[in-house]
Structure formats: C-alpha cells, structure tokens
C-alpha cells in the first residue's frame, strides 16, 4: 500500500499535478476561511443593522470581492512552495494572473465600500420627510463623490492590470511616443468628457441642484431624480423623464423651488365683475385655507391686482410645506372660491353689459303737423 502511494506521488510530481492540487487546496482553504470569518461577523452584528447601518452595508456589499480575494490571496501565498514545478513561462503567467486578479479584487472591494457608505448615508438621512433640505444636500454630495471615486478606482486599477503585461506596456509606450495628431484628436474628444466631469464636481460642491429638488427646466415642472457625472434626470409630474447634460445646470438658467427651503407661496387668479364683494371673498378665503389640510398656517391673502374695462383681477395667495401640497391647495382654493361666487354672488361673474339710451334732449320725435 505504501509503495502504491509513493508511486502515485512520484507520478504527480513528474506531471506537475501535485502543484496544481496544492494550489487548488489553497483556493479551497481561502474560501473556507472567508466563509468562517463572514459567518462570524454576521453573528456578531445580527440585530444591529438598525443602529449600525454602515456595518451591515459593508458586510453585504463586500461579500463578493472578499469571496474572490480570499482564495486568490491563499493561492498567491502557496505559489512559492510549488514554483519549481512550473516552467518560467508558466510562472510568469501565474504571477501576472494572480496579481491582476488581486488588483481587480481590491478595486472591487473599494468600490463596494463606497456603495456601502452611500447606502448608510441614505439610511441615515431620509428624503421622504417634510424638512429634508440637509438630507438632500448630503445625499447629493455623497452620490456624486462616490461616482467620481469609483471612476478613478476603475481607471487606476485598469492601468495597473495592463501594466503587468509587457506587450501592452510596450504598446502604451509606443502610443505615447507617437502621439502627434492622434493625441490632438483624443484631447479634443476628451475635452467634453473632462468638462462634464469638472461640472459634476462643481455641482457636488456648490449644489445648485440636489436630489429631489423641485425645478422648472425647459418649461417643464419636475423633480431632480438622478445626478450622474455627465447628465441629470428630471422626473416630470406626468412621469416622463427629461435627460439633460450636467453642464446645462451651470450654463442655462432654470428655476429651483427648493434651493433653500421646501415651503412655497402659490397664487390663484380670479377675473370677476366690478360688483364683486372683495372683503367678503377675503374672509371666505381664510375660512377655506383654515379648513384645508394642505395649508401650513403661514401665508394667506387676497388682493385686487388689476382692473380692465370689463373685469377686475383678484389674486389669492397661500403657502404650503412643499410643491406637491401647494398644487393641491391652489386647486382647492380655486374650486371653492368659484363655487362660493357662483352660489352667493352670481352677478359678480364676468358679464358683458350693453346699455341702450333713449334720444337726447336736442332730438325730439317728429310730429305729423310739423312737417
């Protein structure tokens, strides 16, 4: 039995299968170590997701890259023990391959950490509450900076991996040495991309817009749904999406209704007859807003802002906590004021009057004897 085992080991050594089995065992060992550590960490943090959102997000997000890195690291550590079993070319391939996989795994893990931080920030700062200005500010900065950092990590990791291989390194050197017109073309083509990247950084720092800001852009009313490094998605009230280059918000004027606060003042215009009782309508407006769930209790008023040859213009103003609530409040005011006028003062609705006068004092009807 011992002789058979010895012969089998000799065969494995001659064919190099022993080295492959050692490397495979190292990979399996790495997977087992990762599994044990991961389960231990999950057991320690179970029930703490609500109080420690970052820890839970890190465990979820880094599961994939760590599952890849643990076997790669174990194989790389076991490689010197079996290096003599491989030819020089095979050794170089294994070294470059493992180093490349390690770089990719580290880059993946770093990007996962960025996503975990963003997830924890989103969990900490809610945007579905009335006073969410600070939350939208922090989430916007986190999201844009995460995209910038992730892009930089991918570029750097890709460069490191490519530099592991001599043919690609020589190709890169040749391209740099003979840049010429190609460099000019690439520079012109990249100018817009770099401009968008700089614009994204500028928006992250100065924040003319934030996620869930209420804006009017290109004549459309909507909310900022997504901000990337190159474009911004605006969610229109009818569920359409407008996609604009990010530079649009630095170069073109637009309205931001929630730049400093979410509360707004809205107006309702009524065009009525000169006989309308303004003071009575003013009292009715106050009764309407005080009974409304949409009013924030701040601003309410009614003023006559214009008078034409046929009608007067009344402007009702009221405030609400945000744009959506204000829209509902304006519709409610308009409907109830019109109903009140129609029911109590129908003569105050716009009307066209025609007056027919009799003959003037100097014009007497003709008599038969005067002819």
TrEMBL record:
Segments crossing the lipid bilayer: 20-37, 68-86, 98-117, 144-165, 171-190
Mechanosensitive ion channel MscS domain ranges (all copies): 193-259
Highest taxon of the lineage: Bacteria
InterPro entries named among the record's database cross-references: LSM_dom_sf (IPR010920), MscS_beta-dom_sf (IPR023408), MscS_channel_2nd (IPR006685)
GO cellular component: membrane
GO molecular function: mechanosensitive monoatomic ion channel activity
Chief place of localization: membrane
Keyword Transmembrane recorded: yes
Localization (cell): Membrane
Keywords: Membrane, Transmembrane, Transmembrane helix
Ranges in coiled-coil conformation: none
Keyword Transmembrane set for record: yes
Location of the region described as Disordered in the Swiss-Prot/TrEMBL record: 351-371
Biased segments, Basic and acidic residues type: 354-371
PANTHER family noted in UniProt: INNER MEMBRANE PROTEIN, YNAI-RELATED MECHANOSENSITIVE ION CHANNEL
Protein name from the UniProt record: Small-conductance mechanosensitive channel
């Amino acid at each position: 039995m011992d002789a058979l085992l010895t012969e089998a080991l000799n065969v494995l050594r001659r064919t190099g299968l022993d080295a492959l089995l050692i490397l495979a065992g190292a990979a399996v060992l790495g997977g087992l170590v990762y599994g044990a550590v991961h389960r231990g960490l999950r057991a320690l943090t179970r029930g703490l997701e609500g109080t420690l959102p970052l820890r839970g997000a890190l465990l979820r997000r880094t599961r994939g890259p760590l599952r890849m890195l643990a076997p790669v690291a174990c194989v790389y550590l076991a490689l010197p023990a079996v290096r003599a079993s491989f030819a020089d070319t095979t050794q170089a391939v294994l070294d470059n391959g493992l180093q490349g996989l390690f770089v990719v795994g580290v880059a993946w893990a770093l990007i996962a950490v960025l996503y975990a931080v963003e997830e924890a920030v989103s969990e900490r700062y809610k945007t579905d509450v009335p006073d969410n200005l600070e939350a939208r500010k922090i989430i916007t900065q986190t999201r844009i900076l995460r995209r910038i950092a992730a892009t930089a990590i991918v570029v750097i990791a890709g460069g490191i991996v490519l530099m592991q291989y001599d043919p690609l390194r020589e190709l890169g050197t040749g391209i740099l040495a003979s840049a010429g017109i190609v460099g000019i073309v690439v520079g012109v083509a990249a100018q817009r991309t770099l401009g968008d990247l700089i614009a994204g950084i500028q928006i992250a720092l100065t924040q003319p817009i934030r996620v869930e800001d209420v804006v009017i852009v290109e004549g459309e009313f909507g909310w900022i749904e997504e901000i990337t490094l190159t474009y911004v998605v605006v969610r229109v009230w009818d569920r359409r999406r407008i996609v604009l280059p990010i530079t649009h918000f630095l170069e073109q004027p637009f309205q931001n209704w929630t730049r400093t606060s979410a509360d707004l003042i809205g107006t309702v215009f009524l065009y009525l007859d000169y006989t309308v009782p303004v003071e009575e309508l003013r009292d009715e407006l106050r009764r309407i807003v005080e009974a409304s769930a949409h009013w924030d209790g701040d601003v309410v008023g009614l003023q006559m802002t214009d008078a034409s040859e046929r009608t007067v213009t009344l402007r009702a103003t009221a405030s609400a906590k945000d744009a959506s609530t204000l829209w509902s409040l304006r519709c409610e005011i308009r409907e109830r004021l019109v109903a009140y006028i129609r029911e109590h003062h129908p003569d105050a609705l716009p009307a066209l009057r025609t007056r027919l006068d009799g003959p003037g004092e100097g014009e007497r009807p003709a008599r038969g004897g005067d002819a």
